[in-house]
């Protein structure tokens, strides 16, 4: 039959080879073309989404204000973007509000609206036989949905470009394969088919019994070698016939033995396979059990580690703060005393001022530790977030130094001029802002931008992200960056103490975000974080507003305004050096001073004596603390004027002492001005 002819097989092989070559190149070109189209579709999605986001707030406001003409103008301006041919806006009920042309969808059905509530989407569809990419998204403003929008992007040029590319590829591939097939056929006919036909004819002669038949040697290639071997075989074939018969018999014997051996081998393989399957099943069970055990152990270890971090942090801050503030009292207060007696041109005045400033800086560090452990008593005031926090920090030397370290980062501020007031600690909020800006800069090693926003906002539903917050009016502080972002597995742990991806001791300590979280909690606020790897981060800090009036800034007053009038003050402190230090300050301020080394000693003294004012240390060990001592004192002298002082104090006990009649709380280390003002103000209350 013709299909068994060598020429047919060679032609078939050439054809099959051409088909495989065509399929191979098609397999390369098709994914490339598909990827090109998908990339183009993603670019279209990004373009359309960006165009909408630029006009989203404007369109939302126009819908909300029912400004139909302005809305139509906004849609036409969007249509002016190259590629966007149709735009339509719908209300929250799905009905069309405005469109750039008629004939578009007049309604969005409920199922599509429900899908859009989960986020924007894009798909391709044909309208009147023409392809479009349709981008649909809800329209929201300040968290409130006011409608929906669809943008139709014309895919006609992309479709025509794709067909043109395919046509050119097919034409080039077909021409190349036809040329290859013709050349291959000519060469194979001359070099293979002709010598093969000659060898075939000789073999047919040999088959007919002509054992001496010879083939002409027309070439020196492999076919020529075959022809020479055939000639030798033809002459020796008769002599080897008996040997061939014997070889065939031997072959049959070996075949029988091989069949028996093969059957035995199959049985052995089957048995061994069964054993391996059973062993594999047991091993998989052991691995699964081991994984479950390891996962449970890791989870318990992580919980224990987090608990230990918080416990160590609280013990560290609480244990160090009281003693360290007592030590710093000498560094701050004694220079105050010495400076009062020094002339302005005294050679040691600058050194004493430096010592006092260093002591105050150390005191601020201790207060940061207390803020982190949430054991300090915050000094709060009515604040303007724009002026007192943001602008004050951006004008500080600390920010200048930070910006000098990151010259490629641009910082923008968008501050609401009608921002409401808040009540809080400017030191703690400013420290939180600083930590967030530092993190944003370090997240952009190649440069970028940081944006700071402030808003007045109203939460109509409680939040519970990284801190609970109730419904009401808030001031929102937002910090955005274009940095590397935060991975999802790290996002839920960023506020844990000592959890950091930075190099400990150099670019981070792991405490900055914990300070931010603690500050937000102390201000009854809330923080939310949005971040994706490679797409930057956004931190929103919510602070409750206050209706209290803002007090004028404190000014430094002369010593004469808070000098005493010879009043008797009882100083109660468990440390001798503290009693001695305070005694010297009070005598310098013209007070008569008595001291007691414990709460019990103070109570005994007041059983037989009186005092115009009692200065109580809050923490005294062993024995009664300041609160318990004051309880005993007012049993003897109801209405006794007193002031509580300490390096730190539990909030509840300070509040309870003030409810009982303690006038003020002052923080160690003492300064002459703070101590003098506190005593004088308390005495003036007594006079009133």
Question: Overview of this structure, please?
Answer:
This protein is an alpha/beta fold. Helices cover 56% and strands 17% of the residues. It contains 16 helices and 19 strands. The chain has helices at 6-65, 68-79, 110-117, 156-207, 222-341, 349-373, 385-394, 397-405, 426-442, 488-491, 512-522, 576-588, 599-608, 626-636, 651-660, 672-687; strands spanning 84-90, 96-99, 121-127, 130-141, 144-154, 381-383, 409-414, 422-424, 448-459, 463-464, 468-469, 472-481, 526-531, 537-544, 568-572, 592-596, 613-617, 642-646, 664-667. The strands form five sheets. It has a five-stranded antiparallel sheet with strand order 2-1-5-4-3. Strands 7-9-12-14-13 form a five-stranded mixed sheet. A five-stranded parallel sheet has the order 16-15-17-18-19, sandwiched between helices. α14 (626-636) links the parallel β17 (613-617) and β18 (642-646). α1 (6-65) packs antiparallel against α2. The radius of gyration is 45 Å and the shape is elongated. The model has no long low-confidence stretch (mean pLDDT 77).
């Amino acid at each position: 039959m013709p299909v068994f002819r060598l020429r047919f097989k060679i032609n078939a092989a050439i054809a099959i080879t051409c088909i495989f070559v065509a399929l191979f190149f098609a397999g390369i070109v098709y994914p490339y073309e598909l990827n090109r189209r998908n990339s183009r579709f993603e670019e279209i999605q990004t373009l359309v989404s960006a165009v909408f986001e630029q006009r989203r707030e404007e369109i939302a406001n126009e819908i909300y204000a029912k400004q139909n003409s302005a809305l139509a103008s906004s849609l036409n301006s969007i249509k002016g973007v190259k590629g966007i041919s149709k735009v339509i806006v719908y209300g929250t009920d799905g009905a069309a509000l405005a469109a750039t042309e008629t004939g578009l969808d007049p309604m969005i059905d409920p199922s599509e609206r429900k899908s859009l509530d989960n986020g924007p989407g894009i798909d391709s569809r044909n309208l009147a036989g023409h392809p479009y990419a349709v981008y649909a998204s809800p329209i929201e403003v300040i968290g409130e949905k006011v409608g929906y929008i669809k943008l139709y992007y014309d895919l006609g040029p992309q479709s025509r470009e794709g067909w043109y590319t395919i046509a050119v590829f097919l034409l080039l591939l077909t021409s190349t394969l036809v040329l290859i097939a013709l050349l291959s056929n000519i060469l194979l006919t001359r070099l293979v088919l002709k010598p093969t036909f000659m060898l075939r004819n000789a073999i047919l002669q040999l088959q007919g019994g002509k054992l001496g038949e010879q083939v002409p040697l027309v070439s020196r290639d492999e076919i020529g070698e075959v022809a020479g071997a055939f000639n030798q075989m033809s002459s020796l074939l008769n002599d080897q016939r008996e040997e061939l018969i014997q070889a065939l018999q031997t072959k049959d014997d070996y075949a029988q033995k091989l069949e028996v051996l093969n059957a035995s081998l199959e049985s052995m393989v089957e048995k061994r396979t069964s054993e391996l399957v059973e062993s594999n099943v047991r091993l998989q069970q052991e691995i699964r059990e081991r994984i479950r055990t390891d996962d449970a152990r890791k989870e318990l270890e992580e919980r224990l580690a987090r608990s230990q971090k918080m416990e160590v942090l609280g013990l560290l801050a609480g244990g160090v703060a009281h003693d360290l503030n007592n030590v710093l009292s000498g560094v701050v207060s004694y220079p105050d005393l010495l400076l009062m007696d020094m002339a302005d041109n005294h050679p040691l005045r600058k050194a004493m001022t430096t010592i006092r400033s260093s002591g105050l800086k150390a005191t601020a560090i201790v207060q940061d530790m207390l803020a982190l452990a949430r054991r300090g008593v915050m000094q709060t005031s009515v604040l303007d977030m724009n002026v007192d926090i943001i602008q004050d920090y951006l004008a500080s030397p600390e920010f200048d130094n930070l910006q000098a370290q990151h010259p490629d980062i641009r910082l923008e501020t968008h501050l609401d001029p009608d921002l409401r007031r808040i009540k809080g600690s400017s030191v703690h909020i400013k420290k939180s802002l600083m930590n967030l800006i530092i993190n944003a800069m370090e997240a952009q090693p190649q440069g970028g931008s940081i944006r700071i926003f402030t808003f007045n906002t109203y939460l109509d539903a409680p939040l519970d992200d990284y801190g609970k917050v109730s419904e009401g009016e808030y001031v929102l502080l937002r910090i955005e960056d274009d940095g590397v972002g935060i991975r999802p597995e790290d996002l839920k742990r960023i506020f844990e103490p000592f959890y950091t991806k930075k190099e400990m001791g150099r670019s981070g300590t792991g405490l900055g975000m914990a300070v931010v979280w603690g500050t937000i909690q102390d201000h009854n606020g809330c923080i939310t974080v949005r971040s994706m790897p490679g797409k930057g981060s956004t931190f929103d800090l919510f602070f409750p507003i206050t209706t209290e009036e803002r007090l004028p800034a404190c000014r430094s007053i002369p010593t004469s305004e808070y000098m005493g009038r010879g009043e008797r003050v009882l100083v109660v402190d468990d440390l001798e050096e503290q009693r001695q230090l305070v005694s010297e300050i009070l005598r310098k301020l013209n007070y008569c001073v008595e001291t007691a080394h414990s709460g019990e000693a103070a109570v005994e003294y007041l059983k037989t004596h009186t005092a115009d004012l009692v200065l109580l240390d809050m923490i005294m060990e062993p024995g009664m603390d300041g609160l318990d001592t004051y309880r005993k004192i007012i049993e003897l002298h109801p209405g006794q004027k007193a002031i509580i002082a300490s390096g730190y104090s539990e909030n509840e006990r300070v509040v309870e002492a003030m409810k009982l009649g303690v006038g003020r709380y002052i923080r160690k280390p003492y300064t002459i001005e703070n101590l003098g003002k506190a005593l004088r103000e308390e005495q003036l209350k007594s006079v009133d």
